[in-house]
From TrEMBL:
<feature type="transmembrane region" description="Helical">
    <location>
        <begin position="90"/>
        <end position="111"/>
    </location>
</feature>
<keyword id="KW-0808">Transferase</keyword>
<keyword id="KW-0547">Nucleotide-binding</keyword>
<feature type="binding site">
    <location>
        <position position="22"/>
    </location>
    <ligand>
        <name>a divalent metal cation</name>
    </ligand>
</feature>
<feature type="binding site">
    <location>
        <position position="49"/>
    </location>
    <ligand>
        <name>substrate</name>
    </ligand>
</feature>
<keyword id="KW-0479">Metal-binding</keyword>
<keyword id="KW-0444">Lipid biosynthesis</keyword>
<dbReference type="InterPro" id="IPR000829">
    <property type="entry name" value="DAGK"/>
</dbReference>
<dbReference type="InterPro" id="IPR033718">
    <property type="entry name" value="DAGK_prok"/>
</dbReference>
<dbReference type="GO" id="GO:0006654">
    <property type="term" value="P:phosphatidic acid biosynthetic process"/>
</dbReference>
<dbReference type="GO" id="GO:0004143">
    <property type="term" value="F:ATP-dependent diacylglycerol kinase activity"/>
</dbReference>
<keyword id="KW-1003">Cell membrane</keyword>
<keyword id="KW-0443">Lipid metabolism</keyword>
<dbReference type="Pfam" id="PF01219">
    <property type="entry name" value="DAGK_prokar"/>
</dbReference>
<keyword id="KW-0997">Cell inner membrane</keyword>
<comment type="similarity">
    <text>Belongs to the bacterial diacylglycerol kinase family.</text>
</comment>
<keyword id="KW-0418">Kinase</keyword>
Length: 117
């Protein structure tokens, strides 16, 4: 139980640091907060509402991992390293793919709500 408590504290500390230090994380937390009521308006079913919120959570998770990669890479060296640059670009691409996926889910749900499907 103590290990679980410590892991929870570490997770809270990591999220708090990410929110303080990264604008993208703050924006995605705002998007998550906004997605909660919007999912109830847009989602036609309970499952669709859960899916809409889950896609926003997924974007936040991937952004947290990308931020961790970038912080670690910057800690390793301050010199320009093409390989580290490619790793950072891949992390950014992962965030981009997640954003596109989330956007498509939301567009599909809107179309479904409007009776297009």
């Amino acid at each position: 139980m103590l290990r679980f408590w410590r892991a929870t504290i570490n997770s809270r500390n990591g999220l708090a640091f990410a929110i303080r230090s990264e604008q993208a994380i703050r924006e995605e937390v705002v998007a998550l907060v906004l997605s909660l009521p919007l999912a109830w308006l847009v989602g036609a079913t309970v499952m669709r509402r859960v899916e809409l919120v889950a896609t926003v959570v997924l974007v936040l998770v991937i952004e947290l991992l990308n931020t961790a990669i970038e912080k670690l890479a910057d800690r390793l060296t301050t010199d320009h390293d093409p390989q580290i640059g490619r790793v950072k670009d891949m992390g950014s691409a992962a965030v981009g793919v997640a954003l596109v996926m989330a956007g498509l889910f939301w567009l599909f749900a809107l179309a479904e709500r409007m009776g297009v499907f």
